[in-house]
């Protein structure tokens, strides 16, 4: 991460001064000023809009140098002009012709949306736009479950475990990303159960071969969550309440100062549900005197879920040295009660629950045409801590009616191991220091030839402990550390007027695990002491793939 920050610090001052101010006066054919006309300045991947003041003057500040299209809309006519910004201060006055020369009865514009362009890249990809869903009370998982080729299996209500299947493949063969960063970096408290559609711009579902820019070892497919990228000042908030005391709220907002490009982004969510829905089945019984079991329809009483999270970022957008540059903080917290194990039994759990937290610093940088036309750069980096704790200290057995269970004599009883789940009481905690840095460069040497280089580095330093164990026992808990580097190089070809699209890429995987386990040894004096054995394993893999579409 240090190396990435140093590169950015070298990049930013170099491009800092390549910016311009554009000013001009709009007049009509009779040389009268035109007030309140809409002026749009645009080029590839860049757009700014303003209006003329009462004196017919328009002004754009902090514009990257280059060639732009200037569109003037007076509500009665539309005109287009080319302007070249090659100095710090550029004046471009415009005199409109007779309105009759520009009056528009009908305008038909044909073009491909970003969704269509992605779906025509040659990969088996489905794109889910969330604009409509963000205005309704719907979960992100529901959007995915309605996608062709995607199957979702959920074990219960809000906050329960989810398994995704893409064209029949599931488990570790399917990877989930947030803006290209593996979702495991964010911990269990920041997941698809928690993130509302209003915080998401689109969801990309790759079935089968995953493109090079998603640098991970996903063999069966990938789901990439693209968070909101809008750079317009806005505020969006929603609140909903439903069955089982389910409450969901979300908010996201952005403020951008047009003069300087300084931008503040903030988004957050809160979810809660009792999940006390009714269940029945062969294991949902009440045991009475003599061991007689009576089937009942019961309400779950230890399955509540709560999650809270948010992202705050400060930076600059649409300035000469960056399309986007943000530093910020991502935090989340969740609480999940556990009603039973993998299978429902006649004695459900009571007061067994999980808690997890995550606190991550983040940095992002994007720039198109960096140093030269066609060279684009993108960096996303996260570093911080996340932890997870299991609490299980209650020894009493419970029945599905929510009361303490009784034995065949009618006496309440406790588990001999002293906890709800076998293994004894626990306050087990897993602490992790995590880092994930994704960098990408793309260079278009011509309209039809593009090279891309991407690198993903991720690391996890894990330590386990249990507050109920003695200091001596905790000294026998091992550590598990992981280092992973994935590098991909891609060549893309568009030929025959985009009728043939090919992508050839190779990926290099390097994974290193470090396991440290304590043990007793006897030295030459006969004394026993604790030593730590360290096992280091490394895995290397090179994969070359190609894909074409006509």
Brief sketch in words of this structure:
The chain has helices at 2-15, 114-119, 140-145, 471-474; strands spanning 19-27, 38-43, 46-51, 57-64, 66-73, 78-85, 89-91, 94-95, 125-129, 150-154, 162-166, 169-170, 174-178, 181-182, 200-207, 221-227, 234-242, 246-256, 262-273, 278-279, 285-287, 293-295, 298-299, 305-319, 322-337, 353-367, 375-391, 428-446, 449-466, 479-495, 500-522, 528-549. It has 550 residues and is mainly β.
Task: Give your account of this protein's structure.
- 5% of the residues lie in helices and 53% in strands.
- With 550 residues, it is mainly beta.
- The strands form seven sheets. Strands 17-18-19-24-25-26-27-28-29-30-31-32 form a twelve-stranded antiparallel beta sheet, with helices on one face. A five-stranded mixed beta sheet has the order 9-15-16-13-14. Strands 1, 4, 7 and 8 form a four-stranded mixed beta sheet that branches.
- The chain starts with a helix and ends with a strand.
Number of helical runs?
4
Instruction: Tell me the number of strands.
Output: 32
* Strands side by side in the biggest sheet: 17-18-19-24-25-26-27-28-29-30-31-32
Query: The biggest beta sheet, please?
Result: 12 strands, antiparallel
List unreliable stretches of 5+ residues. Answer: 1-17, 100-104
Mean pLDDT, all residues = 82
Helix content: under 10%
Q: Distance between the terminal alpha carbons, to the nearest Å?
A: 40 Å
Q: What gross morphology would you assign?
A: elongated
State which percent range the strand residues make up: over 45%
